[in-house]
Amino acid sequence: MTSAEAIDWVQVLDRDGPWAQLVHVGATPAVVARHNVGIAYLATPYTREVLVKGKWSLERSVALSVMASRHMVMLMRERVTAVSPIVLAAEAMHAQACTAGRRLNPLDRDFWADWCRPILNEAAMIVVPDIPGWDRSAGIWAEVQWAISRNLPVFVYGGRG
Asked: Which positions fall inside the DUF1937 domain (predicted)?
């Protein structure tokens, strides 16, 4: 996704719109479980939400990882196998302080998009929990657009549909 592309959820979340068969607005873990056909990619906000005064915040990163982890647990309870790239990446960034070697930039969008791609490619569905910031996340927007272009189901817990 380019920075010039606007995030516009209106048509995507329209219950009568062109993607209504793919995009499940107001979904829950139980709804996801009824459609469970494989690995669920948990798309949660990070880059924009982790900043405090324009800088990466360890405390915000931990909070975002915990929020995503809570949604993984809710899906696990429904026997849905969910993978959260944010939990994996955030926890790696938290451990980086005590790991020798080259530092990874937690805000390098290109690096993280490339890193997430193999996980995304294996996903059978995208799940977007109602975590504050989901609707303004460029990453989530790109992941949902990717899923729609491949006719993969998308489950959005929030939404205005």
From this structure: 39-158
- Give pLDDT tens digits along the chain (161 positions): 344 468 889 999 999 999 999 999 999 999 999 999 899 999 999 999 999 999 999 999 999 999 999 999 999 999 999 999 999 999 999 999 899 999 999 999 999 999 999 999 999 999 999 999 999 999 999 999 999 999 999 999 997 54
Total of domains in the chain: 1
pTM of this structure: 0.92
Please report where in the chains the tokens 């209504």 appear, as a residue. 20
Residue-range definition of the domain harbouring residue 119? 9-156
